[in-house]
Amino acid sequence: MATKAKKPAAKKATPAAAAKVTRIKASEPTTRKQPTSKVIVTDKSASSTDTSSRVTALSVLRSIGGYFKGAWYELRQVRWPNRKATWGLTAAVLIFTAFFVVLIVLLDILFKYLFELILG
Length: 120
Fold this sequence. Notes:
This protein has helices at 15-18, 43-77, 83-119. It is mainly α.
């Protein structure tokens, strides 16, 4: 019977050497920009503001149009049920509704009777 030669054990790295941990204290400043105070708009920048508001309004209208275009595309892909299937599903909903109404009324009568026995 032949025995396998043992491989020399690999040198394991200590957890401290394997990963460097960076500790962040709450008192350190963050890299996020802090809110700035109000900016005063001069006459020169007012014209650029009008242009940017037009561009923003145009992009909003385009996105709304894109939404309705996508919704119409999805509606065209829907496979609508025929009349017979619609009536069958409507009947199923009505039957299940009637069943659960009867069940709840019977449970209400049962609990009312039990409470009258206990309290009365």
